[in-house]
TrEMBL record:
Name of the protein described by the UniProt record: Thaumatin-like protein 1
Gene: LOC105033131
Disulfide bonds: C31-C231, C76-C86, C91-C96, C152-C203, C160-C170, C174-C183, C184-C190
InterPro entries the record matches: Osmotin/thaumatin-like_sf, Thaumatin
Keywords of this entry: Disulfide bond, Signal
Family named by the database record: Belongs to the thaumatin family.
Signal sequence bounds: 1-22
Organism (species): Elaeis guineensis var. tenera
């Protein structure tokens, strides 16, 4: 039989998750136009909601949920069954259960992550422009236990390089050029490019390419709540 010490080590990450509650994300549309907000994570989880100017939507996400994102879609049209398409951020239906297509400004998060002894019960949050940009965004914590604010409030579309401009936004160079230099495949040691530097100059706290961790990835204690604002 395992010793009490080994049992504690085995079940410690589980105990951390049970002590954390679901996180709430208040999603607010301050744009002068309608957006179709969405969230999605692995395992076909997610949802979506039409938000007219000034409307909000509360998303509740289970503790321990990894690799998830919230984003705005623009120029959408759906049928009575909720199937349709959008100019940007499209997932094929109103209630997304998969990630959207570029370009889309992303609020990314992984909740209650554990990798002892390096960290325990941490949320990882960021804004990413790796899939391009469609609407300005602010992503911040709202709990007293953490004070984080990640802004990307510049209208990047207006300044977008001509060869990245597409209907609905400013696309990412990987989607446009489809080369390893811009797509940064897993295991590669890619470097910033002219295009990633363009995005970084406008939104310094946002991911501009996949290896942009040091200035773009932030943490909060597990159990923190958040607010995502479109066009803050």
């Amino acid at each position: 039989m395992a010793s009490p010490t080994s049992l504690t080590l085995v079940f410690f990450p589980f105990l951390l998750l049970t002590l954390s509650h679901a996180a709430t994300f208040d999603v607010v549309n301050q744009c002068s136009y309608t957006v179709w907000a969405a969230w999605a994570g692995p395992g076909n989880i997610g949802n979506g909601r039409q938000l007219n100017q000034g409307q909000s939507w509360t998303v509740t996400v289970k503790p321990g949920t990894p690799k998830s994102r919230i984003w705005a879609r623009t120029g959408c049209s759906f049928d009575a069954n909720g199937n349709g398409h959008c100019h940007s951020g499209d997932c094929g239906k109103l209630a997304c259960t998969s990630y959207g297509s570029p370009p889309n400004t992303l609020a990314e998060f992984a909740l209650n992550q554990n990798a002892p002894p390096y960290y325990t019960n941490l949320d990882f949050i960021d804004i990413s422009l790796v899939q391009g940009f469609n609407v300005p965004m602010d992503f911040r914590s709202t709990s007293a236990s953490c004070s984080r604010d990640i802004p990307c409030t510049v209208d990047v579309v207006r300044q977008c390089p001509s060869n990245l401009k597409v209907p609905g936004g400013c696309d990412d160079p990987c989607t446009i050029f489809k080369t390893a230099q811009y797509c940064c495949p897993e295991g590669s040691s890619c470097e910033p490019t002219h295009y990633s530097k363009f995005f970084k100059s406008l939104c310094p706290k946002a991911y501009s390419y996949p290896k942009d961790d040091p200035t773009s990835l932030f943490t909060c204690p597990g159990g923190t709540n958040y607010k995502v604002t479109f066009c803050p």
